[in-house]
Amino acid sequence: MQHIELSAMPKTPSTAARGYKRILLLIEWLALQPHSVALIDIVNQFTWPKSTALLLIRALVEDNYVSRESDGRYTLIRLPGEPSLNNLAWGTILRNCEGVLSGVVSEINETGFIAVLTPELRLHYLNKILPEREIRYDRNIEVQRIPHYVASGLMLLAGKSESDLERYLDLIPPESGEDILSIRKKIEAARKDGYVVNLQGRVEGAAGVAAPILDGKGHSVAAINISGPRDRLTQNLEQVIKATVTAAAEASKKLKLLTLHH
Question: Any residues with CB less than 8 A from the CB of 95 and at least 6 apart, and which?
């Protein structure tokens, strides 16, 4: 078998590697532009063939990184890893918001969660932080939940479009005996108030408060949920609501700043 020295291997990057590098260069350059750009601007910047530039920018538009404006110019709308309606980016949300959640748990001394909706419209908890007290509320976050059963789910449903909300409500089987009108009223109240209070949790004796985490475009991408024993939470309800809403706003600001910095 012929032995080939590594130093003798060709250094020319593959076509795929060049493509990845060009995509990354284009994204980084677009992030620096204060205004939308035309295709010719990309061609002139990188001295690529027009066909190559068009292929790359179309790929970014198709994957919702770039928006093509009505005048044919292009605008970067998000970087890889940033949350959007088409990109869950749960890891990015958790990294940027977990510290905020930890702070509000320490302040209120009740259990905190960051919750999201899956594409199948099930509630999924990204994490939980327990308070330093003997009697505290806990739940298994590996189990996905039915959104309208819990405060964070109602809050996230409130951020959905009417068509998505109708789709969700249509999935509730008639034989379940669920009061669809009551569920809708709770969701509409969440939209109006900007938070949800659920004093009749599915777990006996538990209650929760939730507020939305918004991305840089103002879309609801997650929710902060504070939960605890009903009697204890009720006694401090105004404080819990204020702290939860404030924490959600702070987390939203972090996501917005993440977008602006890029």
Answer: none
pLDDT (tens digit per residue) in 44-91 = 999 999 999 999 999 999 888 888 989 999 988 777 765 555 555 787
How far apart CA 22 and CA 29 sit, in angstroms, is 10
CATH number of the domain bearing residue 152: 3.30.450.40
Joined together, the tokens standing for residue 50 give 């027009």
CA dist list (Å): 254 to 103, 108, 195, 226: 14, 21, 19, 19
| Residues paired with residue 124 on neighbouring β-strands, in sequence order | 116
Q: Per the domain annotation, does 197 fall within a domain?
A: yes
How many distinct structural domains can be found in the chain?
2
How is residue 172 annotated by DSSP?
S
pTM, 2 dp: 0.70
**For residue range 2-54, what is the model confidence (pLDDT) as tens digits?**
443 434 444 455 666 778 889 999 998 988 887 889 999 999 999 999 999 99
**Structure tokens given for 195:** 């938070």
Based on the domain organization, do 253 and 183 belong to the same domain?
yes
Strands (E), the chain: 66-68, 74-76, 111-117, 123-129, 196-198, 206-214, 220-229
**β-strands 196-198, 220-229 pairing:** unpaired
Judge whether 206 and 231 are in contact, CB under 8 Å. no
Residue 83: inside a domain, yes or no? Answer: no
49 and 164 share one domain? no
Q: Range of 188's domain? A: 90-261
Q: Could you tell me if 126 and 116 are in contact, meaning their C-beta atoms sit under 8 angstroms apart?
A: yes
